[in-house]
Amino acid sequence: MRTFAAIVTMLATSVAAQAESWTTYRIPEAGTSVDIPASLFTETAGKPDGYGQQFRTADGRADLTVQAVSNGEGLSPAAFLARKGPPSGIIYKRVTPKFFVVSSIKRDKIWYDRCNFSRSYVHCVLINYPAAEKRQWDRVVTRISHSLGGG
Length: 151
Fold this sequence. Notes:
By secondary structure, this protein is an alpha+beta fold. The chain is built from 3 helices and 9 strands, in the order αβββββαββββα. Strand 7 and strand 8 (109-117) form a beta hairpin. It is globular, with a radius of gyration of 16 Å. Residues 1-19 form the signal peptide.
């Protein structure tokens, strides 16, 4: 019988191995682009508001949304985030004049949202993944987050 730690290690190794094949996902209407691990997020899971695509892992443990929404009002990252009404209990929050990042844990999953601001659009990635696998997901989340761009 495997221990919980052995199962987490096995799943974590799987995350790293599956994140080896990356591709760039683009939203032409908004100029959004982001690197995603296509070998990890193998299934489409619907459309978000605005433009973009939702993806999930084959086993449903994690999901990724790439989204662009109009910023016709020209809201700053701080104002946009405040209007969005994020839940209380945010563990990590960084707001600059050009982007925001918020993250926390809900129901044993880490949720991570990053939105970059351009003249006309807000370009976002939203990622949900098992909190027990945080360390194994760190590289994946970092690469996705740092690759997010928009016109």
